[in-house]
């Protein structure tokens, strides 16, 4: 998803760039696996684990907040299209403003985690262990952020259903909506369990193991991004196939037409809704032609 956003010139809208940014944060989150494997073979103090896991921690924090910002972008686009078109002319400032929240949020949590370093404690290097008590703060704030995400996306989803929008716009948001359901479900499950391990009195070792295994929900939900966009969004599918040279430039996948608008077929021709039009046969007689 990150590569196709960079590669394709057709994926240059603010929404596409924000989706690419969220996927980039998900990508660096997976570096947590490297830190985990490292700690299995080499005894790792908690402070070293924190430094190794900085990219993964930053990706986890920023990805969570980035999903909310994509929802804000779609909400603005659907509620005030004229203003949004004006904003698109100042795309750099607009994207900087939206991405300030995920980056600032992630940076603050890393700062808190920096103060929780403990060189005397040996850990299995995963996200909860790398942050110390800062993970509790992350679980609670992340849970609050995810409470705002579903209402925004549901509102935008039904708003798009009522509006007459391009099929490509609808398919992109549909794939985005499915992705958000998966990601938010993973995060909400993880955050809820993380909050419960803080609130409910239990053995610290049991709480630690529960938090460690919760990461499976996040990794599973985040790994479906590319597949969902490829299957549902024709814009992303076409861009991905072009990037891997599976299609020739100019070829497009057959799309469903919307409101009688001509839509491109896979062979590059156009298809018109409604009854087929008749064509006149060319009856012109050309000189020097031979009849067989």
From TrEMBL:
Presence of keyword Protein biosynthesis:
no
For the G-protein coupled receptors family 1 profile domain, which residue ranges apply? 1-229
Molecular function GO terms recorded: G protein-coupled receptor activity
Indicate where this protein resides in the cell.
Answer: Membrane
Family matches, as InterPro entries: 7TM_GPCR_Srsx, 7TM_GPCR_Srsx_nematod, GPCR_Rhodpsn, GPCR_Rhodpsn_7TM
The alphabetical list of record keywords is:
Membrane, Transmembrane, Transmembrane helix
Regions crossing the membrane: 17-38, 50-73, 94-114, 134-156, 176-200, 206-230
Q: Which domain of life is it from?
A: Eukaryota
Ranges for region Disordered: 257-292
Q: Which SUPFAM superfamilies match?
A: Family A G protein-coupled receptor-like
One Pfam family this sequence matches: 7TM_GPCR_Srsx
**GO cellular component terms, semicolon-separated:** membrane
Task: Output the SMART domains linked to this UniProt entry.
Answer: 7TM_GPCR_Srsx
Q: Where is the composition biased (Polar residues)?
A: 257-272
Question: Under what name is this protein listed?
Answer: G-protein coupled receptors family 1 profile domain-containing protein
């Amino acid at each position: 998803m990150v590569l196709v956003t960079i590669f394709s010139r057709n994926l240059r809208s603010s929404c596409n760039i924000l989706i690419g940014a969220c996927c980039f944060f998900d990508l660096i989150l997976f570096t947590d696996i490297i830190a985990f494997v490292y700690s299995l073979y080499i005894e790792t103090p908690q402070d070293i684990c924190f430094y190794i896991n900085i990219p993964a921690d930053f990706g986890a924090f920023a990805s969570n907040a980035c999903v909310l910002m994509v929802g804000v972008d779609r909400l603005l686009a659907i509620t005030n299209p004229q203003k949004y078109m004006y904003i698109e002319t100042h795309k750099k400032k607009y994207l900087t403003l939206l991405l300030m929240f995920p980056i600032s949020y992630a940076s603050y949590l890393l700062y808190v985690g920096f103060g929780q370093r403990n060189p005397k404690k040996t850990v299995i290097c995963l996200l909860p262990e790398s942050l110390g008590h800062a993970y509790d703060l992350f679980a609670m704030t992340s849970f609050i952020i995810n409470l705002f995400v579903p209402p925004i996306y549901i509102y935008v989803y039904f708003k798009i259903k009522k509006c007459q929008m391009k099929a490509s716009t609808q398919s992109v948001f549909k794939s985005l909506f499915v992705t958000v359901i998966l990601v938010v479900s993973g995060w909400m499950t993880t955050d809820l369990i993380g909050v419960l391990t803080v609130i409910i009195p239990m053995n610290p070792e049991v709480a630690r193991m529960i938090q460690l295994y919760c990461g499976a929900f996040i990794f599973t939900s985040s790994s479906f991004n590319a597949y969902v966009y490829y299957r549902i969004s024709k814009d992303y599918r076409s861009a991905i196939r072009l990037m891997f040279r599976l299609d020739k430039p100019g070829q497009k996948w057959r799309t469903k037409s919307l409101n009688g608008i001509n839509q491109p077929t896979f062979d590059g021709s156009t298809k018109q809704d409604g009854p087929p039009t008749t064509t006149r046969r060319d009856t012109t007689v050309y000189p020097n032609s031979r009849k067989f």
